[in-house]
Amino acid sequence: MDLAAAAAARDATDPLAGYRDRFSIPDPDLVYLDGNSLGPLPRRTRTAIAETVDREWAGGLVRSWDRWLDLGTRAGALLAPLIGARHDEVALSDQTSVNLYKLAEAAVGADPSRPDIVTDVDNFPSDRYILDGVARRHGGRLRDVPADPTVDDVAAAVDERVGLVSLSLVNYRSGALADLKGITALAHDAGARVLWDLSHAAGVVPVDLAGVEADLAVGCTYKYLNGGPGSPAFLYVRRDLQGALTQPIAGWWGHDDMFGFEPGYRPAPDIRRFLTGTAPIVSMVGAAEGIALCADAGIEAIWAKSQSMTSWFIELAHEHLAALDFEVATPTGAGRRGGHVALRHDAAWPIVQALRDRDVIVDFRHPGIVRYGFSPLYNRYHDVAAAIEVTADVVASGSYRTYPDLPAAVT
Ligand SMILES: Cc1ncc(COP(=O)(O)O)c(C=O)c1O
Questions:
Q1: 119: enclosing H helix or E strand
Q2: Residue among 99, 199, 205, 411 to mutate when testing ligand 1 (max atoms within 8 A of CB)
Q3: Is 364 a catalytic residue?
Q4: Is there a domain that residue 256 lies in?
């Protein structure tokens, strides 16, 4: 199998090829396909963080808060066009899990007659735990729909007791892309709000939150947005809902006049009311840099390359890996998948370890899934071809058999 020439031809005409140099990739031969878990370091981020630490923290000390205070809403405004939101509808704060809790609680708390929440059985576990807790605290329950739900699946679960539908736009395991427009419209027709988790979509899939009139959304910045480990998450609240919803963690950063130090809580009228406490400024600077890089490339160009890479990968997987007992677990149709491709194999975990030892970094998800995450700003078509070739080799040669079967702590 010689795919190198085909990959080189594609790389030669790739309009985003130049962006790879903007990242600090430790080794030119490394095939890094785990940016859907942790994106690599953008070079500018190192400089920006160094300036924040040396000049603003070490030099400016507390005086630097003047320039830091609104970083979360400024970074949110930068992110907004990437997810189809208006500039004042997005802010960076906390973690995805915490933001999901705040927005789910705000939505369900607004209508006591609708305490039930609809989600899918394969939604990210943290989301499921939090949604279950919110529903129970309001005397309701979590209603499950099948994994990778269709509009009809959701329709079958929604009635007048459901106040919220909360789904991931791209499933973290299968890579399936949900019908943002159809599900949002269906939930609205039934009188429920929708809360989208965009963690596996932001920075790779163009999302039209305002266009579909989505109510609420959250997502992380350390995957395709390359914000860095543990970088702050984002939250989106549609403009007309901001004044109407009350989030449960009434902290001073959500107060209308935070430096007035009033004894009672008076929420800000805008997106700031969904903030809580002091922002992690150094991490926030990393998130802002990562977002700026995606914004510079443009989400449509990123998405075009993403689809091109994943469709080529799927085609090659059918051609070269099916005979080695791999099965494509991601929906294959255009418009039905996000930025990563999941392959199912009984020996998925040993295969992942064997690939990592051959400098092809992918990850494992239960049960028996190898995830290949393609991030258009730094991945090359060379990486697509190499992933197929090395995967075929570790299985055909049997080299994966020397690795343990049981998953490690971090997979
Ligand atoms: C889809 C999805 N939602 C939520 C989370 C949780 O994010 P956090 O750990 O930042 O709360 C993750 C983490 O990977 C995720 O993939």
A1: strand 116-120
A2: 199
A3: no
A4: yes
Q: Cα dihedral angle (390, 391, 394, 397), rounded to 10 degrees?
A: -90
Q: Are 119 and 133 spatial neighbours (Cβ–Cβ below 8 Å)?
A: no
* C-alpha 237 to ligand 1 mean position (Å): 18
Q: Which atom of ligand 1 is nearest to the CA of 97?
A: 11
Instruction: State pLDDT tens for residues 125-135.
Output: 999 999 999 99
Distance CA 278, CA 281 (A): 8
* Residue 411: inside a domain: no
pLDDT of residue 17: 98
pLDDT tens profile 28-42: 999 999 999 999 999
- The answer to whether residues 111 and 141 belong to one domain is yes
The predicted structure's pLDDT at residue 1: 56
- Residue 38 inside a domain? The answer is no
Give yes or no: residues 219 and 258 share one domain.
yes
- Note down the domain range covering 281: 47-297
Instruction: Compute the distance from residue 37 Cα to the ligand 1 centre, in Å.
Output: 9
Domain co-membership, 255 together with 315: no
Domain of residue 330, CATH code? 3.90.1150.10
Burial class from Cβ neighbours inside 10 Å (0-12, 13-18, 19+) for residue 1 reads exposed
Residues 111 and 77 grouped into a single domain: yes
Same domain, yes or no, for 128 and 113? Answer: yes
Whole-structure pTM value: 0.97
pLDDT at 334 over 90: no
Provide the 10 A C-beta neighbour count for residue 4.
13
Minimum mean pLDDT range among 173-187, 249-263, 393-407: 393-407
The residue annotated as part of the active site, out of 371, 372, 378, 380, is: 371
172 lines ligand 1 (CB under 6 A): yes
Identify the CATH number of the domain in which residue 67 sits. Answer: 3.40.640.10
Q: What is the C-alpha to C-alpha distance for residues 388 and 374, in angstroms, rounded to an integer?
A: 13
Work out how many domains the chain is built from and give that number.
2
Q: Measure 247 CA to ligand 1 centroid, in angstroms.
A: 20
The mean pLDDT value for 89-104 works out to 98
